[in-house]
Amino acid sequence: MLVALAGCKSLLQLDAAQRTRTPLVTQSVAPAGTPERTALAPVPTRVTQTLAQERTPTVAPVTRTPIVQIIPAAPPPQTNEARWRAQQIDREVLDPPRVYRVVRRTPLFWFDPMTSQTLEIGTLLGDIPVHARFRLRSTGEYALEVQYRINNDFGLTAISEAVRSRMEAAGYTVSVEAFLLESDAVQAP
Prior knowledge:
The chain is α+β, with helices and mostly antiparallel strands. The chain is built from 4 helices and 9 strands. The longest helix is centred in the first third of the chain and has 10 residues, at 46-55. The chain is elongated and about 95 Å long.
């Protein structure tokens, strides 16, 4: 038998006595419960054993690293008032409140902090006490804040049941901070 190695310039000859000691057919060991089989196996030689050892990658032992889970601290949930204040820019509190005159019917709005929607409560006409002046973050328009006692102030005594339900769901059962937009229909004192 003659074995040649690629890349070598000379042939490797094996001792005839060594060739007869290696069986051509080997018995494979099967796991318990499986039928035994005879398989043809390659003739192991020193060269093939050395090549097999060189090809076998060295596996480092596996070490378990403890899992570190970082849970960021969540900011405390905002109150409904804080959500409403976040919609305002350059808020100026008027203390004492100033009385403005609304000369044409003008919508009175309420910001629903639960849905971040602005809802129309009704329309205003006449004198109204204004508690603050600010710009709306969403549009940049100037607005005037008024305290509205639900179904009581400014002649608005029968507002929509849907609006009242949303006010109650947001935690407002007595009054809300409502607002109207500044326009030529609203006269400053």
